[in-house]
What we know:
By secondary structure, the protein is mainly alpha-helical.
Amino acid sequence: MSAGTYSQSAPRQSPTLLRWGNSARKFSQVDDYVRERLALFDSKKRQKRGRRWGAAHTYAWATRLGVHRLSGTVRYIPTATVRT
């Protein structure tokens, strides 16, 4: 199959990420793993033991770091329109 033939026969993909099957569960697992690794890194950096889930490493802590969660509801901001 040539490149031109494939591009013509391939379905167009939506710019949004669709969640099919067990992807919501997998996104949640990735979120938990990232948060766990960051908590362990932070604990080691500050010479503390463990993950300190309740004390320091909450979801708000990860959000303050700028970590975006993959799970949850996506809300789109309406596009700005110019009024004349």
